[in-house]
Amino acid sequence: xxxxxxxxxxxxxxxxxxxxxxxxxxxxxFFAADRYVSEAIVTVRQSTQEQNPLPGAALxxxxxxxxxxxxxxYLRQYIHSLEMLRRLDASLGLRAHYESETVDPIYRLxxxxxxxxxxxxxxxxxxxxxxxxxxxxxVRVQGFEPEYAQKVAKAVLEECESFVNAFSHRxxxxxxxxxxxxxxxxxxxxxxxxxxxxVFQTKHRxxxxxxxxxxxxxxxxxxxxxxxxQEAELRNLRSFLNExxxxxxxxxxxxxxxxxxxxxxxxRATVGDDNERLSELAAQFQDLKLQAGFAEDSYKLALAxxxxxxxxxxxxxxxxxxxxxxxxxxxxxxxxRAYNTVTLLVVCCxxxxxxxxxxxxxxxxxx
Length: 367
Known about the structure:
This is Capsular biosynthesis protein. It contains eleven helices and four strands. It has three domains: 1-32 and 337-367; 34-182 and 313-334, Bacterial polysaccharide co-polymerase-like (2-Layer Sandwich), CATH 3.30.1890; 193-310. It is rod-shaped. It has helices at residues 2-6, 9-30, 68-79, 82-92, 94-98, 115-125, 146-204, 209-238, 246-270, 278-313, 337-366; strands at 36-46, 126-130, 137-143, 318-324. The model is unreliable at 50-67 (pLDDT under 50). The chain has a four-stranded antiparallel sheet. It is 67% helix and 8% strand. By secondary structure, it is an alpha+beta fold.
């Protein structure tokens, strides 16, 4: 501050305004390298899903596929990722381009720079803007040569296309693995249900207890009807014949035979070889049959899901749509020499005015 108090307004103006302006003009005229910008606009489109042949098959994949907006956000992060930088550096030599001696010292990437600083430098040279309304992604690549800026922008889009395809196919493969796992489980449940049904039939020597119970019920009803008719006829004969008559004895023997047969059928319908009721066996058989039917339906559903996943795995469910391809820039956008020079002049004038005011205030108090 003492140094400033000794300066005249003219020398102070030269120091605060003239020197910075001369340095800026010298830099922009002799050192500042032109930076060209190649711009591209892209988005990720979600392919329309085909209708599944079975309504329940869609439940296996509900919520797996993210919307296009999320995919575009993933793409934005990937463009600024270290993996993208490594791929571009391997194919185009980014580090060598930005380390060129023709680049001015301020914007040059110095040799021996660490990976982290190189990534930060790359993110400053490759700008990615996301439009939240339209879900469009604008990629702006800066290069010190117009051809190189366009080449880097094209390479970025190619890597983005590969990323979207790989991401889409990875989802399809995950769907495929999930569907195949469900198919194996469904096949196992179906085999278990069939085995339990076969063991039940073999153990109880019954093909279909339900059908046998129904047949036994019909036979019992027929025997009861026949017994009722024979008993009625026997009572009728006893009304006018003796008990020792041939007709009465023959009819009585028929009635006794029908009663024994009816009793045997009733016993067979209620007691099995292992002392289980036939109705209980029929109920158990019906449960096993229902389980086998449900397992078969689940197997059909899982099989249809596998077929759908196989179809999805062979086609792209998402694709990169290039709205505006990268063009070769004709003029350098940076540095903005006139704008930066005027801005620097305004700032220097403000600093000069504030400094003059402070110096004048101090001198007034000293006096």
